[in-house]
Every structure is written in C-alpha cells, then in structure tokens.
Amino acid sequence: MDHTLAFWPPAVAQTYRDKGYWEPLTLGEQLRRWAETHGSRTALVAGDQRLSYAELDARVDRLAAALHGRGIGLGDRVLVQLPNDLPLVLTTLALCRLGAAPIMVMTALRERELAALGALAEPVACVVQDRFLGFDHRALAERIQAGLPSLREIVVVGEAGPHTAFAALDAEPVALPRPDPESIALLLLSGGTTDVPKLIPRTHVDYAYNARRAAEISGLDADSVYLAALPVAHNFPLASPGILGTFFAGGQVVLARTPGFDETFPLIAAERVTHTALVPALVPLWLQAREWDDTDLSSLQVLQVGGARLDAETAARIRPELGCAVQQVFGMAEGLLCFTHLDDPDSVVLHTQGRPMCADDDVRIVDANGHDVAPGEAGELLVRGPYTIRGYYRAETYNRTAFTSDGYYRSGDKVRRTAEGALVVEGRIKDQINRAGEKIAAAEIETLLVEHPAIREAALVALPDTRLGESACACVLGDDPALDLAEIHRFLAAREMPRHKWPDRLELVDGWPLTAIGKIDKQALRARLQPPLTRPTPRDYIEHRLRIIADPLQLATRLAQAGLDDTLTLYERDGEWSLGIGVAARLDLNLERVRIRYGEQEQSWALEDFPSAVDNALAALPINNWRAYGMARFELARRFHGLPDADTRTELLQLVVPEREIRLRQGEALLRGFSQQAVDHLAETLGRLDSNHPETIELPLRAVQAPVAHENSEEYQRMVAAAVAEIQAGQYQKVILSRRVAIPERIDPVTSYFAGRCNNTPARSFLVLWPGFSAAGFSPETVLEVSAEGWVSTQPLAGTRALGETPEEESALRAELLTDLKEVAEHAISVKLSFEELEAVCDRPSIQVSELMSIARRGSVQHLGSRAGGQLAPGANPWHAFQSLFPAVTASGIPKRESIDAIGRHERQPRGLYSGSVLTVDSDGTLDAALVLRAFYEQDGKQWLQAGAGLIALSTPQRELQETREKLAGVCANLFAPAVAANDHPEEACAS
C-alpha cells in the first residue's frame, strides 16, 4: 500500500472489513471467481466479438503477461484513453490483475489536461486508439511523451506506426506478484470543468463493493443484459453498476461505441438488453427518436439516468414512451452513490435522486460555515463511507480544503433531504452574480484577475443594486495601492471578457474574513462593503388597555370603516380581533430577493434559503415586541417545490409591521403605538365607536349576487375529467382544482366581511385593506400554527357536505360524509401527508395526531377534520415549518409537487391569494397562518370569488362541480354593495 496517500484510518478500515463491505480480493481475483462461477456464459459483446467469462479471464491473463513482459508491474500507472470497445475492458482488467493502476481518461481530453495529469501521476505507458471520431490520438500521445520523461511506451489500438501495437500484446500466462487488495486499483478523473481534473484513487476492495452493491440495488442478475452506452472510462458505466456490476451479477455486457439511438436501439433489439444508463441530456434524444423509430425495445426493463438532475417532466415520459422503468442515480467518482429504488413511488422516482446505497454512507448537509442545516433545508453535501475516498491522489494541499479534518468529502453539490431520506440535488454550491438578468460565475472572473501582475488574490462578490438587481464588486489583495477600476477593465478587455462581466466596483483589501472551514467568507465581505441598515435604538410600542362594551366583531368592523389608514389588516384568532394599522416596516419576497424596508431605509438579500432569509430579515427590524400581518400567495409553493415560475417580480410573501395596533377581546382592548399621541388618538376613536347603539345613519344595504352555478362550469368539468384521468394513470393521488367566478358589481368589503363572519364559524377570519388590493375571508382551517415555544400544529380538513336546512338534514348529511369512501379516503391521505411534512421539521418522537376525523362546521358546510402536531427540531425556525406545510394539503393535493404542477397546467391563471395564506407572525416566534379558501377578492377594479374541490380517482366532474357551487354560495350569500352613506351601520348586513 502507498502510505503517502490518504486512506481510511485503520480502525475505520477494520469496521468495513468486519461488516463484509471489503472482501480481501483484488479486481483481478474477482474476475477469476466470476470465470469459475459462470464459465461458459457470455460475459461481453463488442461488435462481432463475443467472450464467455472463461474466455475473458484467459484473454486478460495473456494481456497481463504481455504487459508484465514489457516492464509494467506492481504500483505503476498507465494512462488509458480508449473508446468503448474490447481493448478498453481487457486493458483495464489486465492492469488491475498486474497491480498497475490504469488512469481512466475520456477520449475528449486533449493536450493541456493530459500533460497535467501525466506530470502528476508519472505514467510509464499509455494505451490509445489510433484515431477516434476523426481525431488523431496517436499524435496526441506522441506530444505528451515528448514532455513527460516517465512515459516510456505508447501502445496503440489500430495502426501503431513506430509504437507498440495492442494486437501484438499476447503472451503465455505467468505467475504475477499479488497486489494488496487495499491498494489502488485504478485512478478516475474528478468531474471538474474549469480546472485540470483531480485523480481519484479507488482501491480494489472499495471499488468492488461499489459495483457489487450498485448491482444489487439496480436489480441486476445472471439474466440481465447491460448496454454500456456512455463512455466506460466514467465511473457511472464502469461500476455504478455498469460493466463491473454486471459481471458481479453474472450478466452480459454489450458495448456501444457511442450512445446515439442509431447505434444503441439496434443493439437493444438484437441482444435483448435489459438495463442501460444515460445522462439527462441524452434522454430527450431517445424519446424524440421513438416518435418515428419502431425498433423493438421491449426487452428494456430499466433506464438509469445520472450525472445531472433529470427534470420530472422528462422522467415521467420514459415509461410510456420507452416502455421501461426509470432509475435515478446520483453519485460521484469520489464515492457516494444514491439510487431511487425500483419499487419506489413516482413521487420519489420522478422528483428525487434517491437514497445512499449503503447503511454506512455517513451523509451530512451543511451551510457555508460547516454547520448542519435544518431538516429539509438545502446545503452542501458532505460524505464519508466504505467506498468514498479520503483524499485525491498526490494532492495534499488541495485535500486540506476538499476534505474535513474528520474525513468527510466536501462534494460541492447543493442538496436537500426529503422526509423519506432521499436526496434532491439543487445544483452546485453556486457563487454567481445576477447582474441585470445575466448570470456571472465569480470563479471565472477571479481566475482572470489573479493573472494581473498587481493582484495576488481576488474575490468577486454581489452587492444589491437598485438598477441592476446585483452589481459585481472585485475585492483584491495586492501590492499596488494605485490600482483602479479602469485598469481592471482594460485588463479584462484585452482578454476578450464581455463587458457585462466586468466588475462595477473595485475594493483593495489587506486581508480576508474566513469561514470556520477556512474559506473566504463572502457574506462577511458583503457586510463590510454594503452600507448597513442604520439601526437606531430599537423602538418600543406604548401600550394602553381599556374596557369596552361593544361586541369585538362589531367594534373591529366599525374601526375598519373609520378610515384610520390606507393599509389595514384585521385578523381573528381564538376570540381576538387584531388590527394592524399603517406601515412601520415592510418585508417583500419574490422569486429572487427578500427586501426589508424601515422608514427611508431599505436592505435586500438574494433569496437562497427561504427560512433563513425571512428570519434574518425580520431579525434586522429595530422594533421590539412586534407583530407582522401579511399574505403568502399560492405561487410561493412553486418555489418551495422547485417548479418553474416565469414571473420573478410578483411578491409572493408580504409582511407589514404596523405603526399602530388594536387588539380586541370581549370586554377589553389593547392599544399600541410608537407615540403617546398615536395611542391617545386610537383611544378617542375607540371611545367614539364603542357603543351598543352608536349614532349612525341606518340605510338599507343591497345584496350582490354572483353567477356561481354556471360560470365556467363546463370548462371546470373538462378540467376535472382530465385531472382524474391523470390520477388514475398514477401521476399523483389527489389534486384540488378551482374555478373563478366574477362578481358583476362593486362590493363593500367591510360590510361583506361583517355579514360573512356573522353567518360563519371559521377557524380564522381576516380582512385585508391594502392599496390596490382587498380581500376578506373565513378560513375553515389553518395552514399551521407555531407557538412561541416551537410547537407546530396543523389541521387538515378534507371531505365536505352541506349543513342542510334542518338539524335532521345536517345529521343525515354528516352520517353520509362519515361513510363516503371517497371523502374518507381523501381525508386519510391528507392526514398522512401532514404527518410526513411535520417529520421533516419536528423531532419525530414528539409528533402526534391529537384529533382524528371529527366534524368541523364551517359556514354552510361541514368537513372531516384532524389535527397533528410536533415540536420543532433543533436548528429549525417557524419558517422551516411554514415551508414544509405550505400550501395546506387540502388546497393543493398529494403529492404536493405533482399536484401543484397539475394546478399550474390545468387552471388558466395564477391563484394569487386563493389557497394561499393570510398570516400573523410575532417577534417571539409565534406564527399563525390561515388558509384562504372562503373569501372574496378585489384588485384593479375587478372582484371575484374562487372555490375548488378535492379530486381523487373516484371523483366525478358533476359531483366536484356541485361542491364548488356549495362553497361559492356560502360566500356569495354575504356580499353587499357599498352603502350610500360612509357611516352606514354594518349591523344591517346581519339582519338582511
């Protein structure tokens, strides 16, 4: 064993031996065992050549003897650059049998990369094709040899010229020194694209386990036929499970020189291929070819896709169009492999990259400072385990940052973990600047900047910019205090760098802030460079309590009518009507940024991690003991679930911290404001309105009707039928589809709110009167409730019947609801999903269902209702819970991602606030989010209602249309036109 390299610590290695992960055999000895077990069975098909396991073993023996005779032996390195053909397999196995490590090089690499790899690994020989795809690899090898003293011999497949012909390498087998099974078997290349790839040392024992276990999870057996279509020099088709995994299973390997359908489809048909693997970019080409190609692909059972994230829409096409299952594979040549399992549901197969394949894959997901992120949150993937390397080959300096001190490999992949334990790859840990819509990779500019003679180190950071969104600031460490931005621009222009990538600002620094893991802390740099939000001494609300005699609902409504401010939010919770009046601070969040405004000051951040961004923005408020009122639009869920949304400007979450506040309970009012004058004014207004019989002009109010029965009814039924067909086809289990109904004339939102609340028994009610937008509603349930102590609770309602006209009719409808299989099934799957979503953010032992399938009366309808809750896990904040539970399952469907995607496809326009949330959040961590369903809306002179129904496989268009009619009628019955007089008394609405 080469003890200059980074191997597993002895105690860890012994654990892997004891658990049976590492068998004490070299790959050459594994081949011998395969030949003894499978003998005459076909092992490999390459063109017109077919080798049995016994023949393959014998050919490898003879090639190993010939290479040994040419001086290649134990511990040597050999550069191998060959296409998918028999010589590549023979050479790789023969070198492993010799104990000489092949350096597996893609045929696309050229002189710059090969020269650097050669200087690092010092190969004694190289094996190349004479020409491949029109390129002269023999000439390339000659150029490399000219600058590489260690390279003694060039072996050429094909026309060898003055070099050794591969075809001539044949000798009688001889006894060879036995390699150490825990020594390096082969060297793979890292996946870097901007730098020379690093060399990945894989040992015989870890790589054998890699291939063997991958074959098990992929369902390979002795009857399997694996098509190696991707370049075999890559880890995926070589051993994940690839060629080696197929050999472990006793199956047959078929080699394709290219992955194009013109070559692979005939091979699949002729050899009855059962398994193959592609990268995502190739899948659409295969699918497109099937539109006109009728080659018999019926033998194909599994298409593995890896190397990058496969989008769910393409993944969903594979089974119907190619006739086989899709298995997502996520991994790295450095080790870790994740697979979706062949029996996983579509929600896992289509939308995740699978689970780690070994119980001892030790995975962490961390933030920029190396701290574990909260459950469900995205971060960098760190891993160690029985087949993940502990260091790159001869890269001691680089290894100090690529690996943690306790042996975790820093993958650079940005992932999050689902409640099921599967990983979802969000991309790489990005260091980008979004300047006027153009994405600029910081590393690209930094690499050029350090080539300037006056710059020793450089970091490019993004700063908020009102015009550009983000501007680029170059921070440089150097020796020339006169260096200016104009010189940087001239320097980059001379290197043909596009103008939009030039830095907008230059800062000379004398040192770097560093993270806990020794990287430049760009967040700290931004804080230094960005003018901080000037935080005065935190403001406190002045509070005053007084007695009231009016009913809180009536008094809250009169206050809403009093014109206290053009921004007012009323929120009812547990017997308290809370009014937020005016704007002291405001938070706005869209797809790209979260922005906080306080007075004349503003600060914004790129939106990377939703829970942390919102929590940090609110923490910056210079106000004590605040309560914020706001709205979350349904389309925020598309961001949470990684679905595309073209409109990056729409505010998806808006929160307002009010200048003044009134909280009303029976017999008591709490007044809050930043000045005594403001509180006194509230007290005076309250005193004037606080009466059971205030002096007002009472004029009759006129009810407004909307065409709830027929508007959009035919279109809605067609939409329902299409979605039910998708459910029956297994695309998802449940979806809530809605229809919008216009209100033909203006309504009075305050009076209509009061009337609706008088005639409803909601879990929450709200009234939003903001500039340009108003809404009022009666929430049948909450999306979630979070206490100051971190207890999370949610109440899914699913399953609906009308209340009926009499107690007897209500009782009969209730009995029908409790025994309706469709409604009970709909409710059960909603409760199950709520429980799973709580598991993502709560301590699992704390999660409980405290109420199951009770009846909740809400306005004119009754529902099946349950309640589940749990304690937030350490490191999670209320916004983690919001992200996990929003939108309410009863407003979207199951699984949420697929149902939200279906809603976007079937409904004609964004939902906005409908099925989103009106919410309050307090500085102590209390968060209360009401589900917006039974509501009316007004914006830009248009008023409307919206209602939906939950669809499952048993649903019918007529029944679901009737459910929307019942829900819409319950809201429509309480709509009233504006009063003739401004001080019209709202109680008239209750009596009408």
From TrEMBL:
InterPro entries: ADC_synthase (IPR005801), AMP-bd_C (IPR025110), AMP-bd_C_sf (IPR045851), AMP-dep_synth/lig_dom (IPR000873), Anth_synth_I-like (IPR019999), ATP-dep_AMP-bd_enzyme (IPR050237), Chorismate_C (IPR015890), Salicylate_synthase (IPR019996)
Highest taxon, organism lineage: Bacteria
Name of this protein: AMP-dependent synthetase and ligase
Keywords carried by this UniProt record: Ligase
Stretches assigned to the Chorismate-utilising enzyme C-terminal domain: 713-967
GO molecular function, a single term: oxo-acid-lyase activity
Domain called AMP-binding enzyme C-terminal: residue spans: 444-519
Pathway recorded for this protein: Siderophore biosynthesis
